[in-house]
Amino acid sequence: MTRAAAGEPVAPMTRALRLCGHCGKSILAEPYQRAGSECRCENCFLDSRRSDVDPNIDAERHALAEALAAALDLRERETGLHSKRVACHTLVLAKRFTIDRDALRQIYWGALLHDIGKIGIPDAILLKPAALTVAEEEVMRTHPRKGQAILAGVPFLKDAAQIVLNHEERFDGSGYPRGLAGEAIPFGARLFSVIDTLDAMTSDRPYRRRLPFDAAKAEIVRLAGRHYDPAAVDAFLGEEGVLREMVAVKCGAAWSDARPAGAAGELGNPAGPQRS
What burial class does residue 236 get, using C-beta atoms within 10 Å of its C-beta: 0-12 exposed, 13-18 middle, 19+ buried? Predict the structure, then answer.
């Protein structure tokens, strides 16, 4: 019988303080990534992924884009680093198709700012805990166009703005705002669609606990050719080991517990096919 079960007083459990081995900030709660004796916060972990794509990225422009995304996440009461996370995950897929740094930068920024148009959605709709009415749903569906309009006057975000405009489109034409189908949807938006589903399903929501990676994987595979570009789904399956690691970091699980059998690697050098 435990002391608690016997009615004896038990000292409260305390969480060991961890320091990020990269930025030095305190890590008071999961998620974090461990590499040997070093812990790394999710923000620094994601930064390491982004720098793999373009170590010479324009720092001031990038900081501005990340600040806008962080502001939106805060307003929408997202926990963690939703926008930055889906941007980095989308890059994992994009690197299978291009090594062009300008293209990768635009895909990153488009995924990072995908929901920037929600700034123009009233709080009563954006933060409503219950299901939206038909009229409210129509208002919510204006956010891709609002987002594109916000970014349209920013020359260095020209291509990213097209991802923002089209990130709610579906491969079979059932999405919005324009009902585009197939290759009429910008490729970056098609990649993002897969990743957005992965992050949504593996994140906690007010109405449900997060689902395991394999549940998200099954849903994505099931909807290939309908909601998702089959090429994007194939890329997702090809990068499964890397994406499992990244989801595990978000969820605060040890990577060693999340790796598929036979995977190997360390922080910053995960298992999986080499990418340009």
Answer: buried
Cis peptide before 155 (omega within 30 of 0): no
The angle subtended at Cα 39 by Cα 59 and Cα 110, nearest 5°, is 35
* Single-letter residue type at 124: A
The answer to whether 212 touches 202, Cβ cutoff 8 Å, is yes
How many residues in the chain?
Answer: 276
Structure tokens at 173: 């034409």
Query: Which tokens belong to 129?
Result: 């805990």
Residue 100 to residue 94: CA distance in whole angstroms: 10
User: Cα dist. 248→19, 36, 190, 257 in Å?
Assistant: 19, 16, 24, 9
**Which uninterrupted H or E stretch holds 197?**
helix 187-201
- CATH classification for the domain delimited by 57-252, as one of 2.40.50.140, 1.10.3210.10, 1.10.10.10, 3.40.50.800: 1.10.3210.10
Domain ranges (residues) in the chain: 57-252
The CA distance from 213 to 243, in Å, is 9
pLDDT tens-digit series, residues 60-118 = 787 888 888 888 878 776 645 788 889 999 999 999 999 998 999 999 999 999 999 99
- For 186, residues 6+ apart whose C-beta sits below 8 A from its C-beta are 159, 162, 163, 166
CA 226 to chain centre: 21
